[in-house]
Design brief:
With 276 residues, the chain is of the alpha/beta class. The protein has a domain at 1-25 and 57-107 and 224-258: P-loop containing nucleotide triphosphate hydrolases (Rossmann fold, 3-Layer(aba) Sandwich). The chain contains eight helices and nine strands. It has helices at residues 38-46, 84-91, 123-133, 138-152, 167-178, 197-212, 224-230, 248-257; strands at residues 11-29, 52-69, 73-77, 99-104, 108-111, 185-189, 216-220, 233-238, 241-247. The strands form two sheets. It has a six-stranded mixed sheet with strand order 5-6-7-3-8-9, sandwiched between helices. Strand 8 and strand 9 form a beta hairpin. The chain binds adenosine-5'-triphosphate. Adenosine-5'-triphosphate is lined by residues 22, 24, 58, 60, 78, 80-86.
């Protein structure tokens, strides 16, 4: 499938034959547990002689190539473990490719200033920490503070520690912080899935605004409706391989055709008649 024509023909990201392999060190394979009696279980837990120190390789991304242009909004879809987040994190510069190259024009921002946010601290403190991680000055953050809180819709909860937030509140605040500075390349990993309908509408508008400023948006999501709503182009990953790259409807429809059909919900049983 051919990718749709971009509005701006300046490349923002070039991935060329990218492989990403995780090396998991110190993984140990135990021998099979022979008996269920207490003695052999104890031996299996503590006998060092039976452990095999190994280094396991996980080929998370295999030979992925594509070019993303300024102003494009690109969805990344695929089953669990297909390599979507790994690819995104690599574009964000967090994981170096094992082979191949990634060129980026501009500053990528992975939604999920997560890495720097601290759950013990209040939302307010985290807005400052996250904002500074995005390159904003304290004065700029102060200026945008009210807008960030407004956008996240968390109100006075901003003064409570983030660990007391619901997952939806935390995701909304992360989104609001990450989009407080218009990044050259915005990467969103599943974060939109947790918001309510109103927040989804506002975040869609925000993504559109960011795209208009000629930024590139990457969105990893299991929600095909979110992908359809926000993306003009879709990359479909399958077992680390880029299976398709093309216009959203074509790729999502082809992906959906491979998914198991959902069973219709069971009809609720009628309640027994109330006793007189
Ligand atoms: N830090 C890690 N160390 C070792 N293997 C990892 C690591 N992170 C991911 N993997 C493996 O790499 C593969 C791709 O994982 P990745 O998280 O990129 O997939 P994904 O498509 O984003 O999955 P999901 O939809 O479930 O979030 C999987 O086999 C996963 O187990």
């Amino acid at each position: 499938m051919a990718a749709p024509e971009p509005k701006d023909s300046t490349p923002a990201v070039i991935c060329s034959h990218v492989d990403i392999t995780y090396r998991v060190q110190g993984a140990k394979k135990m021998g099979p547990v022979a008996d269920e009696d207490d003695e052999s279980l104890f031996k299996n837990l503590f006998s060092r002689g039976r452990e095999l120190a190994t280094i396991q390789s996980v080929e998370a991304v295999k030979d992925v190539s594509f070019v993303a242009y300024h102003g494009e909004s690109i969805g990344i879809i695929g089953r669990n473990g297909s390599g979507k987040s790994t690819l995104l994190r690599s574009i964000a510069g967090l994981i170096p490719p094992t082979r191949g190259r990634i060129w980026i024009s501009g500053e990528p921002s992975l939604l999920g200033v997560n890495a720097v946010l601290m759950s013990k601290l209040s939302g307010e403190r985290n807005i400052y920490i996250g904002g500074q991680a995005l390159g904003l000055t304290r004065a700029q953050i102060k200026e945008r503070f009210a807008d960030i809180v407004d956008f996240s819709g968390i109100g006075d909860s901003v003064y409570r520690p983030m660990k007391t937030y619901s997952s939806g509140q935390a995701a909304r605040l992360r989104f609001a912080i990450s989009t407080a500075a218009t990044p050259d390349i915005l990467m969103i990993d599943e974060a939109l899935a947790t918001g309510d309908a109103d927040f989804k509408e506002r975040s869609s508008a925000k993504v559109a605004e960011i795209r208009q400023q000629a930024s590139t948006v990457f969105l990893v999501s299991h929600s095909n409706s979110t992908i359809r709503e926000l993306c003009s182009r879709v990359l479909w990953m399958e077992k680390g391989v880029l299976l398709a790259d093309g216009p959203t409807e074509e790729v999502v429809a082809a992906y959906e055709a491979t998914l198991p059909k959902k069973k219709p919900p069971a009809k609720p049983k009628p309640l027994p008649p109330a006793e007189a």
